[in-house]
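User: I've been going back and forth on whether these two constructs are worth ordering. Before I decide, could you fold them both?

Assistant: Sure. I'll take them in the order you sent them. The first construct and its structure tokens:
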Amino acid sequence: MALRCFLFLSLICSILLLVVDVTHSAAQDARKAYIVYMGDKPKNGVPILPDLHVNMLQDVVDNSNIDIAHEDLLLHSYKRSFNGFVAMLTEQEAQKMIVSVFPSKQRSVKTTKSWNFLGFPETFKRGALERDIIVGVIDSGIWPESDSFSDAGFGPPPKKWKGKCQGNGNLTCNNKIIGAKYYRASQSFKEDVESPRDSNGHGTHTASTAAGNTVIKASFNGLGSGTVRGGVPSARIAVYKACWGNSASCDDADLLAAFDDAIADGVDILSVSVGGTIPVDYLNDPFAIGSFHATGNGILVSMAAGNEGPGAKTVTNFAPWQLSVAATTINRQFITKVQLGNGKIYKGLLPNIYGLRGKFYPLIYGGDAPNTKAGADGSISRFCVRDALEEDLIKGKIVLCDGPMDGAGDGAILGGAAGIVLTGKKVDDEQLGPYPVPASFVGLEENSDIYKYINSTRNATATIWKSEEISDVLAPYVPSYSSRGPNPINPNILKPDLAAPGTYILAAYPPSSGGGRAGYYIDTGTSMACPHATAIAAYVKSFHPKWSTAAIQSALITTAKPMSAKTSPDAEFAYGAGLINPSRAPYPGLVYDLDEQDYINFLCSQGYSGKLLQAITRDKTSCSSKSNNGTANDMNYPSFALSIKDPKFVNGVFHRTVTNVGSSKSTYRAKVVAPLGLKINVNPSVLSFTSLGQKKSFVVTIKGPIEKSNLVSASLVWDDGAFQVRSPIVVYFAV
């Protein structure tokens, strides 16, 4: 008893309670799963044992109100990389856990023409250490039998690997997939397989995009045919299944457990194509907490920016220690022709693998087939959503649907329609992927013409042809689904960081998912962009294994290709520094480096202190007077963002330090590109280096006024003739 009390008291100063509303099958409805997060591991070598966590439960749980053992209330102990546990508690018991509570949310999961589109062909120079790089993927699992994950030609795992294969009799690892684990605090496996095997497809797709083998003659049932490969095909993969079911939903408790293990296992890069939909404070965000610990252990965490665009402040995963990746298009589109009975042909979009082979079917407008028994009328049935259509009126017919909206077309599919024609302004929403029936997406004008044809004849008919692949000459641009900045928490830290291909990406998939009988599938979203950035981060690390996570992140940002605001009107808030550039990323010339103390100083400058700060960092961490007086502008970030309240008064000062990683002797000169009215001064404007690793500091001063605009774009380039180190500069009027 005395030992238990001593251990408990020694931990009180660093306990943070995170309430996690995880769905659980426990019989006691009053209990929910809560995360009790207790900061970093003890540095004195004392092991973290589940018994300690059970003892803590005994101190807060009302014994008169439970009929199960305390051990059964403990769902999971985080003990490998940070300290904490998940337990079934009542709200009253949770409040006894010392400090603060916050509700957790269920998260969602947010190739190969894309690599050639990025100027990164198979023959490009490879680092000698690529086979020793371990890419960790936190997602919905993996389908190991795919050719993308064959271990032919691979030797044993790197000696640094400490992980395991938790196949549960359902999955076997190899020398390519060197580790696989799964996490399910709720213990609910009704919609999925209790193993790391991927029944959804999302995790398989992202893992193969990042590090899948080279596979020739791959396609999605004939679409996108060609050679498919990951960005680092020689790298190893470690899988952490924390997302479950058809929707690939992910609970905070499982995500934190995955981070915990991945850090301890020895992965080099983490790819996390998962995110929330509502921005939350760092200490209420398991992604921020987990990625902070990963960063502190030298693991760069690449994360999807989110699929909540195009609204402002929709970007997720925006902590400065995370690489936030937006999505772009590539030079690939799919044209799907809709031919009417009167001979007219309309070219729609969507990757459609089926087609009706020229056979004509009756054509009906969804608004003319309402399911009145379910209370629907034409104003609802026109969108063809679930339960809105009368099955007897649409079965075996092609249905014209208005939209777009979530679930558009679902009612027609479930009702036995022979095909669907969807409608909207742009076909760039991430939900508009391949459908299980012949489908096309036409514009508003084409929709109007088809509607007029339906009303002009008693026997309207149509057919839908299989898609044809064409080139998208406007690519790259950021589609509307990709989440936008500015940063909702720290307006002077630019997010997203950069952009990568995320639209119509062909990658591995379970053979039974999405209709992809060949085991490859075309998917869209920032979830697809994230593993592209993951791969290039791994590629850079294979050349520079000792670089910090911040140095690698800086290299990716400062070598990105500038993109056009003409095709992506939200500019840097859409694409950050621009399109990721694999060929230049390992050779940035200069890097903006950071370490863990810099991130701590940043948190201090944002008002974090005491127990709240200690909970995310280390037990004895505190803020100095210097860090308390700092601002986000003082953080050594490779981009510049300035939020202003008055466009007539612009005054921003940024302190930065660069480290020479290019030529030992070099002289860089500052080149500033800015619109009229915006005055940007760099002091000093010349930086001379005499050795590698040498650091030089400078100050950027920005003054106005500017036009009353939401965003004004500029840039700073340090140029020595061989290397061009570009940082975006954004000044915007905060509304």
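The second construct, handled the same way:
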Amino acid sequence: MSQPAGYSPSFKRPADIMRKRWRRSRSDAGVPSSPSGPESAGSPGRSGSSPACVRPFSPGPLFSRGGTKRRNPFSSIENTYSPKKKIHILNEDAKPGDDREEDASTKRECRGVSSFSASLTEAERHEHREVSSRKCLTVSEDDSLFEEEDEDVKSPLLKSPQAIAPASIAPPVCTEYPADWSLKTRLLFTSPLPLSWAEQPKAQEEALGLSQHCRAQFTTLPHSLQDPRSCSELRCAFQQCLVYWQHPSLPWISLFPRINAERRFTGKSTPWAQNASLQQSLMSEWSVSLSSLYSLLKARQCPYFYLCSYQFTVLFRAAGLGESSTITALISPTTRGLREAMKAEGIEFSLPLVEERRKSKDQQNLDGQDGKSEGCSEPTEGAACQEEDEGGEDGYNDDEDSSFSWLKEMGIEDKIKKPDSISIQLRKESRTVSLDHKPESVVCVEGPHTFTLINFLINCKSVVAAAGSQAGLPPTLLAPIAFRGATMHTLKARSVNVKSQVGSTFQNISSLEITGPILPSSLHTITTLLRPAQKGNYSATLYTHAPTAVMNISTTKQHSANCPVDVSGCGLHPASLQQLQQPSSLGKTALTHISLNNYSYTWKN
């Protein structure tokens, strides 16, 4: 065969290079080589691997075979690999010599040598070259991923810091959100999976759910449900967690919320408004129900209950909840008249937020100056202590009220008008009254004084409105378990499918709306059921009854860790009970959003 003009003997055609590489790989694997040709190109080119869709050396159709696509042998390192992968490729060519011609075809593909190998000795470099010739890197279809063929050879020179270090650190999984003691008026759940299973239960499922609630029986669900709509246990458990108990119960009037709810009662029939005997009968039944609730609370058969009047809300918690070893009661908001009436009845209470603010202020004074700040060191009655503190700040106290001799010594007694006792008293009272109807006015009662508070609420006339649309109507009692005179109610659930715009496309999103007085235990059991039903992915928007948001503050001085209290028989789900036993970390705020992503909670307050 005649050689064309300008032909160089050292020039190797691409077909010869590929044939030589294929024969070397076959000899390393111990497979006898076969004659070259189109048929042999389809045989496995590497040990145990079979390239797919290999194109012949001349343009033509692809050969359909299993495996990965062979990269273009004519492409260079610069335009084949991504910029990230170029870091791991040796950019300088090998030195000329006897080994250059022998390993030229191999080095074009096997250039996974680290950049710092140039500093090695000649013997180490020769040994490393042998290792790299056996450990070649192949490129996948997208020319971005490297795969090692020889996994037995693990040289640290071929390992980049990115390969040695972990690819990513998994975020911590939060399986629970903080306890929230505020009352919710509305919940809105959204999820990419359907939520239609939560409405329109069958008669048998609803009956079984109510029965399980009354008997305090709970169903254990699997970690994930494939078809929630066909799971009868899930639907029964959902009906069970919607139940709450209320007194009094008037079907034509919504008795929650009671604060700033005059419009709800306008135009409604109120036959007790002008009937004194009917008002007396309502108050008598209400007193019996309140006494029954406190007895259940004291016996740890009721975990908590709420008293909602037209001007304040009271939360009673059993011993063992909120990390407290005694019964506690939180009242919010309060007024100066209510606090004075409680003090007159001998009820000891504290203003937790006022005391916390005063302690932080005293600490700042101690840090800023060496002197001590005047005030109450260990107050038991927050209102009285606050009056003394606030009075002392403006320079008006009993000592200065009784003597102004320093004016006489300066000779300006007649030129300056002395404040009279009435002005001093009004100034003190104005600071105390400024707390009224604010979150800072929350009152905490602990221990045996809660029983005195019950008697005070039964006999206090200010718990019932004397005029207006709520005149003569007793406060609303809400509890998660049955009590004397209570009526069983269920929260209203409604499921709707909507389309939400995400970027330039619309996605189908299922929503579930729950309305009514939503208790803390009901919120937790609902979110616990949605966890397996929605496969660990949903979000919720929470609407809080504003006066109860401050009830998440930490008020206890005695902790149940030192004296554990058994409250397992209170009728709550074990998971909900465990959450409510922990101290709340929300302060005077409440949860507004809850999101569950891949079984991990995040929240906002």
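Notes on the second construct follow. DSSP finds 20 helices and 15 strands in the chain. Residues 371-433 form one domain.
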